[in-house]
Design goal:
Low-confidence stretches: none
Helix content: 25-40%
Number of strands: 7
Strand content: 15-25%
Order of helices and strands: HHEEEEHEHEE
Distance between the termini: 68 Å
Shape: globular
Mean pLDDT: 83
Structural class: alpha+beta
Number of helices: 4
Length: 154
Amino acid sequence: GEKAALKIRYFGDFYRTLSVEKPKRIILTDTESTVNLCRSFLNFNNSEYMVALFLDKKNTLIGRFDITDCRPNSVGVQTKKLSLKVVESQCSYVILVHTHIDVPTLPSESDYITTRKIANILNTLDVELRDHIIISPNSEYSMRTSGDLKDLWA
């Protein structure tokens, strides 16, 4: 009767839930894979924009945090909020990515200072900064790959 119909519907819904494809895991192992992912969601408007990508020990993306106060040609980093999000995510690694609205994508002195500041904060949380990548509409720049701030990538 009615109870049997409810059970059949319940198990049908349960089976459909199990058979739905799980989202693909996103693994970020290099600059190219990170840039390709970020180009899918970053906008190049009139302000610079920064995100932190959180990775587990297998380099699987487990979270993202928008950490900027957007202003033209400047990025204000919310370090307290970033620290909280890093702890909440239980990530092992962080990749910083930010936009330059025009070329060149070369880091500014402020970019280096911000990178070092965030790396120091992450170190106190036993989290490794993997890279800081700058993306413009037509190019990208990896601080790690370019050999900048060598002491951070040891």
